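Hi all, posting the design record for the shared folder.

TITLE: backbone redesign
STEP: 1 of 1
STRUCTURE INPUT:
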């Protein structure tokens, strides 16, 4: 039982991510989804397909966080080593799940295709792991306990990851951990104001302990300012954000060109 989980970490896996071939879009989506449960992601990690590095990282993160969510590395090829690393970190062997194997074969048969022998790898899981079915792909995910922390392993393809996240992991976390403090957000987009000048004018609104918390990023002359308020109820969080947003509009009226949509 996880109880009141409020901190987590995300791991994105794949040599192609480290090579810069593709951006990691999964971790941000996972963090946003967890935030809606009141679980704050404190750390993002990107790793290649190295069993030793993954094993070490899984174990380290699971000793620091009660929930670690990773994506990638559970395909059928030999460089998909996430399941092997998870089993090693948990100190358990991999075991064949006969039901998952049968379901994989049936899925291929329905499409009049022959399943390659390599696809059988997707039916092996760390002993004691809880399998999460994949409704839109062939690679099931799983949850496994590692030294008091729960490692959730999701597929790498973004559409498969998002489906399993929404269909399997989030409902399980909600039933296991309950709903934490509600989160409300609001964004402003500003023009013609250097980031350093903005910080001076924002003052203690930028303090790390503030509620709402204010974050700012600069890109091509535009400042994106995000307010994130937390409270026991969504209404309370929205009220905190609305009050600060009203003050913000007054203080930065000359620089605001849009709210919530940068294209306006």
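Okay, here is what came back for every position:
SEQUENCE:
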């Amino acid at each position: 039982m996880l109880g009141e989980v409020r901190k987590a970490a995300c791991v994105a896996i794949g040599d192609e991510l480290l090579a810069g071939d593709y951006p990691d879009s999964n971790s941000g989506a996972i963090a946003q989804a967890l935030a809606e449960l009141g679980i704050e992601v404190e750390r993002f990690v990107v790793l290649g397909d190295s069993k030793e590095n993954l094993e070490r990282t899984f174990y380290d993160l699971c000793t620091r966080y009660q929930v670690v969510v990773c994506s990638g590395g559970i395909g059928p090829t030999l460089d998909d080593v996430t399941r092997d690393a998870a089993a090693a970190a948990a100190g358990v062997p991999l075991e064949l799940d006969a039901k998952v194997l049968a379901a994989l074969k049936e899925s291929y048969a329905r499409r009049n295709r022959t399943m390659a022998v390599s696809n059988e790898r997707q039916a092996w899981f760390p002993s004691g792991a809880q399998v999460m079915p994949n409704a839109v792909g062939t690679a099931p995910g799983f949850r496994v306990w590692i030294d008091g922390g729960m490692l959730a392993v999701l597929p790498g393809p973004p559409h498969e990851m998002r489906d399993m996240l929404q269909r399997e992991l989030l409902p399980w976390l909600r039933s296991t951990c309950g709903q934490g403090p509600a989160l409300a957000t609001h964004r402003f987009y500003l023009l013609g104001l250097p980031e350093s000048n903005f910080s001076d004018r924002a003052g203690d609104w930028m303090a790390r302990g503030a509620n709402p918390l204010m974050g700012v990023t600069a890109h091509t002359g535009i400042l994106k300012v995000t307010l994130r308020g937390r409270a026991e109820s969504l209404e309370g969080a929205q009220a905190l954000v609305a009050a600060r947003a009203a003050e913000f509009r007054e203080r930065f009226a000359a620089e605001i060109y849009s709210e919530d949509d940068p294209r306006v």
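COMMENT: The domain at 182-259 is CATH 3.30.70.2860 (Alpha-Beta Plaits).
Let me know if anyone wants the other runs.
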